[in-house]
Write a structure and sequence with these properties.
Number of helices of chain A: 20
CATH architecture of chain B: Up-down Bundle
Oligomer: heterodimer
CATH topology of chain B: Four Helix Bundle (Hemerythrin (Met), subunit A)
Radius of gyration of chain A: 25 Å
Radius of gyration of chain B: 20 Å
GO cellular component, one term (chain B): plasma membrane
Number of strands of chain A: 2
Structural class of chain B: mainly alpha
Distance between the termini of chain B: 62 Å
Order of helices and strands of chain A: HHHHHHHHHHHHHHHHHEHHEH
Low-confidence stretches of chain A: none
Subcellular location (chain B): Cell membrane
Low-confidence stretches of chain B: none
CATH superfamily of chain B: Cytochrome c oxidase, subunit III, four-helix bundle
Helix content of chain B: over 70%
Largest sheet of chain A: 2 strands, antiparallel
InterPro entries (chain B): Cyt_c/ubiquinol_Oxase_su3 (IPR024791), Cyt_c_oxidase-like_su3 (IPR000298), Cyt_c_oxidase_su3-like_sf (IPR035973), Cyt_c_oxidase_su3_a-hlx (IPR013833), QoxC (IPR014246), Ubiquinol_oxase_su3_dom (IPR033946)
Largest sheet of chain B: none
Transmembrane segments (chain B): 21-46, 66-84, 96-115, 135-159, 179-199
Mean pLDDT of chain A: 94
Strand order of the largest sheet of chain A: 1-2
Shape of chain A: globular
Domain Heme-copper oxidase subunit III family profile (chain B): 1-200
Structural class of chain A: mainly alpha
Number of strands of chain B: 0
Largest interface: A-B, 45 and 38 residues
Number of helices of chain B: 6
Distance between the termini of chain A: 65 Å
Strand content of chain A: under 5%
Amino acid sequence: MKLDEFFVTGDPLIYGADVSIALTLIGAIFALTYFKKWKWLWTEWLTTVDHKKLGIMYIIAAVLMLFRGGVDAMLMRAQLTVPDAGFLDANHYNEIFTTHGTIMIIFMAMPFLIGLINVVVPLQIGARDVAYPFLNAVSFWTFFMGAMLFNISFVIGGSPSAGWTSYVPLAGLELSPSVGQNYYLLGLQIAGIGTLLTGINFLVTILKMRVPSMKLMHMPMFTWSSLITMVIIIFAFPVLTVALALMTFDRLFGSHFFTMMDGGMPMLWANLFWIWGHPEVYIVILPAFGMFSEIISTFARKTLFGYKAMVYSMVVIAGLSFLVWVHHFFTMGAGGAVNSFFSITTMLIAVPTGVKIFNWLFTLYKGRIRFTTPMLWSLAFIPNFVIGGVTGVMLAMAAADYQYHNTYFLVAHFHYVLISGTVYACFAGLHFWYPKMFNHRLNERLGKWTFWIFVAGFNLCFFPMYFLGLAGMPRRVYTYGVADGWMSLNVLATMGGVLMGIGFLILVYNIYYSFRYSPRETTGDPWDARTLEWSTPAPVPHYNFAHLPEAKGHDAFWIMKQERKQGKTQEKKPYKPIHMPSYSGVPVVMSVFFFIAGFGMVFSWHWMSILGLIGVLATMVIRSFDYDKGFYVSVEEIEEDQKRTTL
Amino acid sequence: MESVEYSPNTPLEYQSETGRLNILGFWIFLGAEIALFSTLFATYLVLVGRTAGGPGPEELFELSGVLIETFLLLTSSFTCGLAIHYMRNHSLKGLFLWLGITLALGLGFLGFEIYEFVHYIHEGAALTTSAYWSAFFVLVGTHGAHVTMGIAWIILILIQLKQRGLTPDTTRKVFISSLYWHFLDVVWIFIFTAVYLYGMVM
């Protein structure tokens, strides 16, 4: 392979990216060396098994990926603003919409949510860590290395260009001969390992690590939504693992699962992909529902309305999520009976979702609402998500779908559910739990600017797309003609996109501004909130709870505060040493080997992939022989912490 | 500083918090494995008959080899159970003996499977021949790769048993690997039925 095939060449945008990557790397290395932070980086972050730190790293990575995916979106909007634009050529445009979709779903939405779950859920259930802290670190690092592998594709070897759904035969070897598609397969495969482990880890954590006094039906709603999400992950992700492996076999080893020749069946890929892909949609929306439930209840200052209905509706959504996958390809021609079945199951999902919407509305009803930034995001979510949901029901009607299929109507629909559902929730959750993570709030004024600009921009960007779709504009086209008459709506959409970008930049500035100027937290309960994570002091000690808290019902912390107001005081119990797991460098090293193995497979350099896999196995053996029992936090240290925090 | 009293009937592997958590987690992992193999079975069943004019299973499958493989693997599951029985009776010797036999049977299974694969490839049925054979090799091969991993894993655990004897940690590892081994046995029963028996009567 020649060097100019290895590095992507010929495009000024890519050269710009090369330079910026090199500068960032040099800058990071210089800063770490200059401030003598290498040891700090390794001992405090790279080797950590603390769920709070892992959660923060997940969120940082997700915000970076949001930036990357957002730049992709901006480039697409720039190209589509006017007819016959020559900013991007067809292939470059294909690469950009492929990486935009893949990054936003797999490397932005999921890690953002999993990051918040990591930080919040153990605190909400009164646990000192997750069930398997070591595995939690493996989860993060495999996700991170998978994401890095996918991201380097655009400067080394070329990006995938067959869409995030990677339908065959387009994604097959004949029509996508470059290594780009291999990056997709290996990057997702490696990140998928981490996601599956997260699923198992948090399912056991929530089931077994709760404080003994917390009943299942008293768990905070975000914890419930996480529990159900983990069950979906455990049953959906193995399907993706297999689908990706089969396509990898097709492309690297000449098998015939999805080929046009020798008995292969291209539609098998579409089925397998969406058997994972549809539950995946609920993996990224259920935790969002959970967060909105917490935030709405906190700022309406009421217990969540219809707690049980909320739980059962999520269970029903999770079950139905595995029974709707064919609605992604009604036009395949599976026949009336099959399409009708999947049409009905799809529409059924609107029922439990509607139940949830009404529960949120009834929670707000007669509440004494405080319009904080997290609450604003939650309030905007309800109407915007309903627009996305209702158009979803329109798409669910198989006969009508023949008209909407593969048009901007669909693009508008899924951005309405994913952005106003997942992205609003990520922003709401970030503002809400930010003081738990960083010990100061994000600035409310800047937060509201972000909110209004982003929400206005979002609606301006995507609402016109419904009409573009109805006017016949197909998705995934890199340009259109003047005669099509789609320009005015596209100009509006681009303006909206720019506003969203500005909103994001204000958020980033807010992070910097608040770090410098926000007052530090003293109480650990800045919002006067209801669930146990707010009972921890600021900053949260690494063992979370000096004494395990008691959960006496819904909104356990709220009950505690009421009791305190009534003058009931807890008797002071003596502290006991607390057992905590040791940090370990094995997860990050193992994931680096995964990266090496993946990179070797992308280029079919088998010596490198074998070397990488040997490294992975070696780290597993090292782990197997490691009988480290963790350590005990001494009573003196706990007392020291408590003195500092009660001041 | 766990000072909880356990009844003498509580197996060693359940006597620590880590033990109980890891065993539960592994059961859930097996749930994910079921989803994984279900997908492979579904793929295989969809692609049955799509031999693209090449050889089909009815021409190549031989009952004798498959029966020997089945016999070896099913027996190994039984001996694995005996190993756990001896472990529960605190007999390190019995545990070593029966785990050793389990490994030997597993290796025998793998040997016959590799021979079978080589034989098919010689007869002109390889991964690249047709969709049917792709599905066959990946489904049965994934099971075989799991058995290989299981053997390597159990060898590592045997070394640790040698070093440390029967402790809550080592017994936990033995018990979890035994769950894995039985699971592979169950998967094989489905492979035997859905691949071999079905393939021969096709």
